[in-house]
Amino acid sequence: MPMRNHDHILDDPGCRYRGNTVLKLAILDDYQNAALKAADWTVLGNDIDITVFDEHLGWDESDIAKALAPFDILVCMRERTRFPVSQIDILPNLKLLVTTGMRNLAIDMEHARSKGIVVSGTDMLPYPAAEHAVAMITDLYKKISAESQVMRNGGWQGYVSESLNGRTLGILGLGKLGARVGDGDGCYRLEPKPDGRAVRRSGCAPGR
To answer: For residue range 24-47, what is the model confidence (pLDDT) as tens digits?
Structure first.
């Protein structure tokens, strides 16, 4: 069984989660221990006991069921832990299943609802994944991380970078994220702020 970070926020003597608890909530696969810092969990009041699992529970459904048996509420980090029919059926205390994002193909949502389990999702920002994809493509051609490692090892100019200009980008699934990646320069949606002196010298109006 992987190590778990139990009651991650209960060390603070003034924490509102102390005292008698009614429902037990588990945050799954929070490898970076970032979930509790990303939102104000105190709004849940005194009746929620929170446990953070900062390592993956594995793939054995019996082991997962044993670890999660006490919990009424599970908060999933995307598709890191699967909840098919067979897994849901061996979690008798589960009442609420929350996932980051409005879609999660690792959860059999229809079966969960048929068992009386509420399935809920959160809003997601559309741009981080697109930005990351564009950054990785840029890194691949410009050899940024590879050159960084060369310099860390005492070298200098280990690679010759390539140009992206005129290349063809293949996108599988042109949805919101795919379209944003395909937008190229518009992926980052940066607001340019030209230096005033340079603008005056060029004779151009700002933004042109």
So the answer is: 999 999 999 999 998 899 898 888
Residues 182 and 111 in one domain: no
List pLDDT tens digits, range 146-175: 999 999 999 998 998 888 888 888 888 788
Sign of the alpha-carbon torsion through 48, 51, 52, 55? negative
What is the CA 183 to chain-centroid distance, rounded?
22
User: CA of 173: how far to CAs of 103, 131, 170, 178, 180, in Å?
Assistant: 15, 16, 10, 6, 11
Q: What DSSP line would sit under 57-72, residue for residue?
A: --S-HHHHHHHHTT-S
Number of domains in the chain: 2
Residues 29 and 115 in one domain: yes
Q: Is residue 185 part of a domain?
A: yes
Q: What is the crossing angle of helices 144-152 and 127-142, to 10°? A: 60
Print the domain residue range for 68.
23-121
- β-bridge partners, 149: none
Q: Whole-model pTM above 0.70?
A: no
Question: Among residues 54, 59, 1, which one has the least CA distance to residue 28?
Answer: 54
How far is it, in rounded angstroms, from Cα 26 to Cα 51? 5
Q: Last residue of a domain, which of 69, 93, 121?
A: 121
Q: How many CB atoms lie within 10 A of CB 2?
A: 11
